[in-house]
Design goal:
Number of helices: 3
Order of helices and strands: HHH
Strand content: under 5%
Helix content: 55-70%
Shape: elongated
Length: 112
């Protein structure tokens, strides 16, 4: 139960960074922290105490096996979060080239 609360606290730290910070780089870091908190939560959901690896064999019984689905989902979300972070960083670089600031309050309007 404690690990679930720690995942929630980590998610809330990332959410605070997204909602309260005005620097674009800090917002991107907050989004990354939120993504890692969700990944950690999914891995914790699939964990079993003294669980075996999810590899089937003809001579083994299927007892106390770790759930492989959250692991596969986390691998997929790692790739998606990497692409999202790179896209956000590219947008932040373009904004800095045009407005010479990362502060979102100083950016009045965005033109293509």
């Amino acid at each position: 139960m404690v690990i679930y609360m720690l995942c929630f606290v980590l998610f809330c730290i990332g959410l605070y960074g997204v909602l309260r910070k005005r620097n674009i780089i800090k917002i991107i870091i907050g989004i990354g922290i939120m993504e890692y908190a969700v990944n950690l939560f999914l891995i914790v959901l699939g964990y079993r105490v003294r669980g075996r690896a999810p590899i089937f064999s003809s001579d083994q019984q299927v007892l106390n096996m770790v759930d492989p689905l959250p692991q596969a989902v986390v691998l997929t979300t790692i790739v998606i979060s990497l692409a999202t972070t790179l896209l956000l960083a590219a947008i932040a670089i373009r904004i800095y080239e045009k407005y010479k600031t990362f502060d979102i309050t100083k950016i009045k309007r965005l033109r293509g």
